[in-house]
From TrEMBL:
Name the UniProt record assigns to this protein: Sorting nexin
Database matches in SMART domains: PX, SH3
Keyword Signal attached: no
GO CC annotation: cytoplasmic vesicle membrane; plasma membrane
Binding site for a 1,2-diacyl-sn-glycero-3-phospho-(1D-myo-inositol-4,5-bisphosphate): 264, 266, 304
GO biological process, one term: cleavage furrow formation
Compartment(s) where it occurs, according to its Swiss-Prot or TrEMBL record: Cytoplasmic vesicle membrane
Length: 572
């Protein structure tokens, strides 16, 4: 039976299945049973479709109405339990209410193995049951919950000449700046909006700090004081339970540790999800994709190893990611019991999402926010163009690999067979047969068949390295639109707060607090952009050098084969 409802907030439809509603608008609700937080009904303009259940109250004559906003999990300012494109490896919103995409790649049986001694059946953080999950899986901000943050909320001292950016505003009252009611917004679910508005409480003790300093190209992450590297070697198939379970183990050898450790792909996957959970404004490199079948084929194992090597190089080179306690635990822990303890500690880390922004120490140098916005816009255009060009080069390189393995190989085999046929024909009339010439032509045919095999094998030496690097950068680049969106949202809040301050609707000190916290996000994004460019220059230099060197060696080997065939005709 249709029910009467009233819109509590404005909602603008973004997909054809949805309809827009306006605050205080009368609605017809077809059923009060929500589907994943959505109701179906009709607005006052006769449009039929879906709208958020949390934006509506059901009106009942002679009875209490049903208010879907009573649930913290469904309130418009709360976080939702599903992910969207804010974290690239997480599902993206598809069609608004039509569902959410699953994680990229297909599942691997051994990655879901609950019998593994290194993982006692829990691969996700155990969150509070009430209120749902926020972005990347961490719980939504609940300032009234005393256990959500450390009990000692005391001020901390900044380190000169850096300043600690804390959340000073709204200790007694919430910010009057308007909030984004679109709970699907990455800006809302990441917690950055709450941080900008001063709703992330200070912490008495922050064990980890990450500094940003001014470099020749602007803000940059302060280098890891203890740099290291880590090799990924010896992928080995292992079994458990008398062969019932099989998996591939990789040998990891950090330069700063005394002994190697052995990790499965599922351990990499656990670490990757911890990274997404914690580092809101950092582009975390994607892991190599999962695969449902053929996981133990030699080519797939080798491809995954190559890409894990590149992934590890990016992790160890990042000044922030390389210092993460969970990453260090992943690289060094040898004891099963200690592994589980460290795993739980990482999963209960409070300095994630918005709270992670409290760990930054930023320079005291003044930066005009308009200049920062212009710099971000330039990088946004650059990253879009680079993403397009990386995709184009990847497509061309993949096609070239296909031709090397198939087309080129077949063409040279055909040419070699044709030379062989000529040699055989010359032997048909023995009195006029020239054995030295026949042998030379036959050798030429075999040479071109060998060249065809060389073409088929060559991508392993050059094009695979190109494709591996391009794949890594496709993942890194795909992270930036949402990271940039966080900065854009922060800029918008600064402009709104300043306008309200000019109109006398907000105290100037509160507007200054929003601007100050926006500087944190701005400095962090610029530091990440700076690091991306540094790695890009290094990676593409090495990629191109390796490709050209291998191409030169390849054609030198081909030329040597042809020169040997040519010398057989000397003296005939």
């Amino acid at each position: 039976m249709a029910l009467k409802g009233r819109a509590l907030y404005d909602f603008r439809s973004e997909n054809e299945e949805e309809i827009s509603i306006h605050q205080d608008e009368d609605l017809v609700v077809f059923s009060e049973t929500s589907l994943d937080g959505w109701l179906q009904g009709q607005n006052s303009r006769g449009e039929t479709g879906l709208f958020p259940a949390s934006y509506v109250e059901i009106l009942r004559s002679g009875a209490n109405h049903v208010d879907y906003t009573s649930s913290s999990a469904d309130s418009p300012s709360a976080q939702v339990t599903c992910y969207d494109s804010c974290s690239v490896a997480s599902p993206a919103r598809s069609g608004g209410v039509s569902g959410f995409l699953s994680n990229q790649g297909s599942f691997e049986d051994d990655d879901e193995d609950d019998w593994d001694d290194w993982d006692d059946g829990c691969t996700v953080v155990e969150e509070p049951r009430a209120g749902g999950l926020g972005t990347n899986g961490h719980p939504p901000l609940n300032l009234s919950y005393p256990g959500a943050y450390p009990s000692q909320h005391m001020a901390f001292r900044p380190k000169p000449p850096l300043e600690r950016q804390d959340s000073l505003a709204s200790a007694k009252r919430g910010s009057v700046v308007g909030r984004n009611l679109n709970r699907f917004s990455c800006f809302v679910r990441s917690g950055v909006e709450a941080f900008i508005l001063g709703d992330v409480p200070m912490m008495a003790k922050i064990a980890e700090t990450y500094s940003i300093e001014m470099g020749p190209r602007g803000p940059q992450w302060k280098a890891n004081p203890h740099p290291f590297a880590c090799s990924v070697e010896d992928p080995t198939k292992q079994t458990k339970f008398k062969g019932i379970k099989s998996y591939i183990s990789y040998k990891l050898t950090p330069t700063h540790a005394g002994s190697p450790v052995y990790r499965r792909y599922k351990h990499f996957d656990w670490l990757y999800n911890r990274l997404l959970h914690k580092f809101t404004v950092i582009s975390v490199p994607h892991l190599p994709e999962k695969q449902a079948t053929g996981r133990f084929e030699e080519d797939f194992i080798e491809k995954r190893k190559r890409r894990l090597v590149l992934w590890m190089d990016h992790m160890t080179s990042h000044p922030v990611l390389s210092q993460y306690e969970g990453f260090q635990h992943f690289l060094s822990c040898l004891d099963d019991k200690q592994w589980k303890m460290g795993k739980r500690r990482a999963e209960k880390d409070e300095m994630v999402g918005a709270s992670f922004l409290l760990t930054f120490q930023i320079p005291t140098e003044h930066q005009d926010l308009q200049d920062v916005e212009d710099r971000v816009d330039t990088f946004k255009a650059f990253s879009k163009k680079m993403d397009d060009s990386v995709l184009q080069l990847s497509t061309v390189a993949s096609e070239l690999v296909r031709k090397h393995v198939g087309g080129f190989r077949k063409e040279f085999q055909k040419l070699g067979s044709a030379f062989q046929a000529i040699s055989q024909a010359f032997q048909m009339d023995p009195p006029f047969s020239s054995e030295p010439l026949n042998s030379a032509i036959s050798h030429t045919g075999r040479t071109y068949e060998a060249v065809g095999e060389m073409f088929a094998e060559q991508p392993k030496n050059d094009l695979f390295r190109v494709l591996d690097t391009l794949s890594l950068y496709q993942g890194l680049l795909s992270n930036f639109p949402d990271i940039i969106h966080l900065q854009k949202g922060a800029f918008a809040k600064v402009k709104e707060s300043q306008r309200m301050s000019d109109e006398g609707r907000m105290a100037q000190d509160e507007a200054d607090g929003i601007r100050r916290r926006c500087r944190v996000v701005g400095f962090a994004l610029q530091a990440e952009m700076n690091h991306f460019h540094q790695r890009r220059e290094l990676d593409f230099k090495h990629m191109m050098q390796n490709y050209l060197r291998q191409q030169i060696l390849f054609y030198q080997r081909v030329a040597q084969q042809l020169e040997r065939a040519l010398r057989m005709y000397d003296g005939l």
